[in-house]
Design a protein that fits this description.
InterPro entries: Cellulose_Degrad_GH3, GH, Glyco_hydro_3_C, Glyco_hydro_3_C_sf, Glyco_hydro_3_N, Glyco_hydro_3_N_sf. Keywords: Glycosidase, Hydrolase, Signal. This is Beta-glucosidase. The chain is an alpha/beta fold. Helices cover 34% and strands 10% of the residues. The chain has 21 helices and 17 strands. Strands 12-17-16-15-13-14 form a six-stranded mixed sheet, sandwiched between helices. Strands 4-3-2-1-11 form a five-stranded parallel sheet. Strands 5-7-10 form a three-stranded parallel sheet. A hairpin with a 2-residue loop joins β8 and β9. α4 runs parallel beside α5, α7 packs antiparallel against α16 and α8 packs parallel to α11. The longest helix is centred in the N-terminal third of the chain and has 24 residues. The protein is globular and about 80 Å long. The N terminus is likely disordered.
Length: 631
């Protein structure tokens, strides 16, 4: 009897212990059935200052490890431009890296998962074998033909990013580029805010379609095949004086709000989860220091409830020179309303500085709590607490044939036909597929890196055909013409070569080298040599179509008379066969300029609606052709 009693009480004690453990282990913030605000409140009530500041800290993968994330309680990791786990890394390698970082986060006291961010700007462009879509300047030319195209591109990009275990892209760029001398103009859809507003539909592709009854300003994510998006760069980045990157935008408040703000309204309505601040200034005040526009307008007036993130070393650049007074920069940037800081390297300095400022009452806890509340809201909305680890289920989406076909379709629709024949009644395009012999020339005809442009594999981009997988324009031409047509490729032929070649016609593909950001700033916008020489040598001797591969309009007025046809192909990406599809008439030209094509740089800045508007090709211009066969 005594033995039975002891056994009974032993079992009872064990049961009570299990019940106590179950009660102790239950945490509202880990319960997906609880409302998000309840989960946030519960989690924040448990967090120390150290844990809160850790959530506000984003570091580059080159200084990250599971141990570092665990020790400093960090909230986010990113890949800066070209920062990859290994050259030509597979999707599985990326996943293993991200999951390794996640282990460090989940083994902290509270187990708050990290968000991993990357610049997936025109496809998952940092990753080998990803589908590279046309840059935004080209997509702006498609708005009249297929307004849903960017949404489909966003959805495909989301799948390819998920294929590598990444949750978050620093895209889209919704800058309104008002001066093509800016080195980031190709990241802008248009000089016209209405087109940029329409292109925010890409957010619905990246994040999913927000339900119609959703509260305005609340972040949204539509499932584990979607990724968190980021509208950037707030505000006025495309309006700087002379197009100088990170410079000063001199404009009235009315002008700023009427030109540069509207697309942010659309992005917020679509549930964009994060907003990145611009390096640039507005009338002399750095945007990273602008409390009135970040907190007063974006957070309070527009009621944006996602988080605000700095740009790369954005706090450092509040002072000139950068990092001259880091304590001041941290105080100013956090006070302005920045929630997550892209450090990206010296994270201990940031953590120590912000901790000091809070402990000395320079930064109130209410400001820290606002930042952390927003970060947690985005993480909970993204389902990171329920699905912190990536698996290999999406790896086959990377560079899939379906996505490459979509990119090829996008290329076709971005092409803008600027000239077709030396007279209206003698069009050159579409070209006949069957010809005795044709010449393909130019620096960009057989160069995948050139046709993809900047922000491809590396930050600045790379010329050449060994950096990723795709189809050059030359290869596209060879696959499109009749098997009996002889295709001769000579990158830089002499006039004698052209004259003696007895070519039926020539295709000249020239343009700008890859670049990004400040490295692309140009005060002259000239077409670099040998491009002009190739145009002159070829088009002076045979009927020719010139295909321009550029991130913006460039100076071409003096060369247009010698050309028989001229096509703006922008930066088409990996699927160069889309160019051949239209040149040879399988599809018609449909693109319309989303930018004014100037005559000389002395006219700049010149935008549609300006009083003195005298372009070479006006905004909205684009000749059309009919397909030569039924589709």
């Amino acid at each position: 009897m005594a033995e039975i009693s002891i056994r009974f009480w032993g079992i009872l004690v064990i049961c009570l212990c299990w019940a106590a453990m179950a009660e102790e282990e239950y945490k509202k913030y880990k319960d997906p059935k609880q409302p998000i605000n309840v989960r946030i409140k519960d989690l924040m009530s448990r967090m120390t200052l150290e844990e809160k500041i850790g959530q506000m800290t984003q570091i580059d993968r080159t200084v990250a490890s599971g141990q570092v994330i665990n020790k400093y309680l960090l909230g986010s990791v990113l890949s800066g431009g070209g920062s990859v786990p290994a050259p030509n890394a597979s999707a599985e390698t990326w996943i293993d890296m991200v999951n390794g970082f996640q282990v460090g986060a989940l083994t902290t006291r509270l187990g708050i998962p990290i968000m991993y961010g990357i610049d997936a700007l025109h496809g998952h462009n940092a990753v080998y074998n990803a589908t590279i879509f046309p840059h935004n300047i080209g997509l702006g030319a498609t708005r009249q033909v297929d307004p849903e195209l960017v949404k489909r591109i966003g959805a495909a990009t989301a799948l390819e990013v998920r294929a590598t275990g990444i949750h978050y892209t620093f895209a889209p760029c919704i800058a309104v580029c008002r001066d093509p001398r800016w080195g980031r103009c190709y990241e802008s859809y248009s000089e016209d805010h209405k087109i940029v507003q329409a292109m925010t539909e890409i957010i619905s592709g990246l994040q999913g379609e927000i339900p119609t009854n959703s509260r305005k300003g609340v972040p949204f994510l539509g499932g584990q095949n979607k990724i968190t998006a980021c509208a950037k760069h707030y505000l006025g980045d495309g309006g700087t004086t002379d197009g100088i990157n990170e410079n000063n935008t001199v404009i009235s408040r009315q002008g700023l709000l009427s030109i540069h703000m509207p697309a942010y309204l659309n992005a917020i309505v679509k549930g964009v989860s994060t907003v990145m601040i611009s390096y640039s200034s507005w009338n002399g005040l750095k945007m990273h220091a602008n409390h009135e526009l970040i907190t007063g307008y974006l957070k309070n007036k527009l009621r944006f409830r996602g988080f605000v993130i700095s740009d790369w070393q954005g706090l450092d650049r509040i002072t000139s020179p950068p990092h001259a007074n880091y304590t001041y920069s941290v105080l100013t940037g956090i006070h302005a309303g920045i929630d997550m800081v892209m450090i990206p390297f010296n994270y201990t300095e940031f953590i120590d500085t912000l901790t000091y400022l809070v402990n000395k009452n320079f930064v109130p806890m209410t400001r820290i709590d606002d930042a952390v509340r927003r970060i947690l809201r985005v993480k909970l909305t993204a389902g990171l607490f329920e699905h912190p680890y990536a698996d290999y289920s999406f790896v086959n989406e990377l560079g899939s044939q379906a996505h490459r076909e979509l990119a090829r379709e996008a290329v076709r629709k971005t092409l803008v036909l600027l000239k077709n024949g030396k007279s209206d009644d003698q069009p050159l395009l579409p070209l006949p597929k069957k010809a005795r012999k044709i010449l393909v020339a130019g620096t960009h005809a057989d160069d995948l890196g050139n046709q993809c442009g900047g922000w491809t594999i590396t930050w600045q981009g790379l010329s050449g055909n060994n950096n990723t997988i795709g189809t050059t324009i030359l290869k596209g031409i060879k696959k499109t013409v009749d098997p009996t047509t002889e295709v001769v490729y000579n990158e830089n032929p002499t006039p004698n070569f052209v004259k003696s070649g007895k070519f039926s016609y020539a295709i000249v593909v020239v343009g700008e080298p890859p670049y990004s950001e400040t490295f692309g700033d140009s005060l002259n916008l000239t077409l670099p040599e040998p491009g002009p020489s190739i145009i002159t040598n070829v088009c002076g001797s045979v009927k020719c179509v010139v295909v321009l591969i550029t991130g913006r309009p460039v100076v071409i007025q003096q060369y247009v008379p010698v050309m028989d046809a001229l096509v703006a192909a922008w930066l088409p990406g990996t699927e160069g066969r889309g160019v051949a599809d239209v040149l040879f008439g399988d599809y018609g030209f449909v693109g319309k300029l989303s930018r004014t094509w100037f005559k000389t740089v002395d006219q700049l800045p010149m935008n549609v609606g300006d009083r003195h508007y005298d372009p070479l090709f006006p905004f909205g211009f684009g000749l059309t052709t009919k397909p030569t066969k039924a589709q």
